[in-house]
């Protein structure tokens, strides 16, 4: 049985945004919602990295365009130094020049600032459970970008890259198709814990760090075909 909202331990969150009104508004909004606890707020990327080191939050809600150290660089430093802290980007911008560098830096979620409080909370808990916390518009943009990649031949049945087992390859394909851990578990008729074990194993074998990288990897290996039509 999954945890209910009341039983779930609140996620400890740091908010990073250089605009005081926006930052304080996000903090106030999250303070009204169950499931999260704001433990700190930063006005730029340097301060965000410092607060993560001091407070060890579960998640940073990261703006991208900030002085001294922007959100992409701050995300890169946090993921390198404090891998126990996840990053969800919360920004005005959903263009390719913002989205893809942030995902490559290690962000596990990406929302625009028109997201509601409930959507932010869902994204926070999604990344903590190993899923991607992407808004629907960002998911569409990611799939559009991937669909523009040059298709590569699909490997023959049973041919798995990098020493992956058949089941690990199946899990990778379903990640590439955008399924959550729970959806993969239902599709394969296994537990969510088993899915997480397969994901940890395939990440270790391939050197992948997050689901966004796994999606790109699945496409690059021809395990998932770009959508057509």
TrEMBL record:
Keyword DNA-binding: yes
Residue ranges of every copy of the Response regulatory domain listed in the record: 12-128
Keywords assigned: DNA-binding, Phosphoprotein, Transcription, Transcription regulation
Residue list for modification 4-aspartylphosphate: 63
GO molecular function per UniProt: DNA binding
Residue ranges annotated for the HTH luxR-type domain, each copy included: 157-222
Entry protein name: DNA-binding response regulator
């Amino acid at each position: 049985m999954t945890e209910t909202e009341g039983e779930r331990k609140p996620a400890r969150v740091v908010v990073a945004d250089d605009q005081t009104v926006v930052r304080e508004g996000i903090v106030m909004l999250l303070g009204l919602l169950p499931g999260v606890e704001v433990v700190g707020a930063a006005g730029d990327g340097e301060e965000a990295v410092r607060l993560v080191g001091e407070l060890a939050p579960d998640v940073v809600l990261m703006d991208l365009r900030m002085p001294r150290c922007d959100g992409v660089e701050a995300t890169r430093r946090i993921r390198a130094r404090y891998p126990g802290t996840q990053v969800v980007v919360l920004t005005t911008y959903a263009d390719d020049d913002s989205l893809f560098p942030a995902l490559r830096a290690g962000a596990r979620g990406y929302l625009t600032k028109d997201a509601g409080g409930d959507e932010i909370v869902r994204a926070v808990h999604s990344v903590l459970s190993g899923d991607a916390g992407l808004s629907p518009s960002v998911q569409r943009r990611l799939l559009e970008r991937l669909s523009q990649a040059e298709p590569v031949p699909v490997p023959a049945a049973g041919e798995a890259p990098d020493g992956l087992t058949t089941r690990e390859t199946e899990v990778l394909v379903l990640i590439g198709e955008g399924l959550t851990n729970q959806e993969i578990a239902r599709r394969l008729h296994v537990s969510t814990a088993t899915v997480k074990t397969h994901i940890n194993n395939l990440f270790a074998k391939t050197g992948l760090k997050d689901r966004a990288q796994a999606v790109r990897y699945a496409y690059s290996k021809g395990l998932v075909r770009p959508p057509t039509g």
